[in-house]
Amino acid sequence: MQLIFDTLTGNTRRFAHKVADLTGVEVVALADADPRAPYLLLTYTFGSGAVPESTAAFLGQHSHWLRGVVSSGSYHWGESFGRAGDVISAQYRVPYVARVNKSGNAEDVRRVADWLQTHAANAAD
Ligand SMILES: Cc1cc2nc3c(=O)[nH]c(=O)nc-3n(C[C@H](O)[C@H](O)[C@H](O)COP(=O)(O)O)c2cc1C
């Protein structure tokens, strides 16, 4: 399993690297990614609950190996907090692994690490 992240201001990248530091899982920026194996997508929420265009375009090409999604967002957005993850999860029928405020806290990192560990056995699926 790889971590593929999209980011505008760096929070999602920072979160992805925190998860990688704990788990040793490889991290790749979405712009550099060409997935040929299962990956966890980490993105952010923009424009009142929307999926960033860059993420949507990437998924249009590369959804085959998508296995789960994480969205960064901000508590301040209330009902649309991290909603990009809900949209992607519903559209591609993958689990919404974590809804993360900004660059996340230790509990968020642990949650994603646990999920990765559970799914490592199925990494070739
Ligand atoms: C114009 C704009 C719209 C945003 N809309 C939302 C939103 O609807 N829901 C949400 O949870 N966060 C929203 N955010 C907050 C970002 O998702 C949050 O800051 C996130 O951590 C950014 O990730 P990044 O640093 O990886 O780009 C918005 C931020 C901006 C600047």
Proportion in helices: 25-40%
The tally of helices reads 4
Radius of gyration: 13 Å
Integer tally of domains: 1
Envelope shape: globular
Beta strand %: 15-25%
- Ligands and ions found: flavin mononucleotide
CATH superfamily annotation: Flavodoxin domain
What quaternary form is this? single chain
Low-confidence parts? none
Give the strand line-up of the largest sheet. Answer: 2-1-3-4-5
Structural class: alpha/beta
Mean pLDDT: 95
Number of strands: 5
**Termini gap:** 10 Å
Highest CATH level, the class: Alpha Beta
The sequence of SSEs as H and E is EHEEHEHEH
> What do we call the CATH topology?
Rossmann fold
**CATH architecture annotation:** 3-Layer(aba) Sandwich
Characterize the largest beta sheet: strand count, sense, and whether it forms a barrel.
5 strands, parallel
Describe this structure in words.
This protein is an alpha/beta fold. It has a single domain, classed as Flavodoxin domain (Rossmann fold), CATH 3.40.50. 38% of the residues lie in helices and 22% in strands. It contains four helices and five strands; from the N terminus they run βαββαβαβα. It has helices at 11-23, 53-62, 83-92, 106-120, and strands at 2-5, 27-29, 39-44, 66-73, 96-101. A five-stranded parallel β-sheet has the order 2-1-3-4-5, sandwiched between helices. β1, α1 (11-23) and β2 (27-29) form a beta-alpha-beta unit. α1 crosses α4. The N and C termini lie close together (10 Å). Bound molecules: flavin mononucleotide. InterPro entries: Flavodoxin_CS, Flavoprotein-like_sf, RNR_NrdI. Pfam families: Flavodoxin_NdrI. This is Protein NrdI.
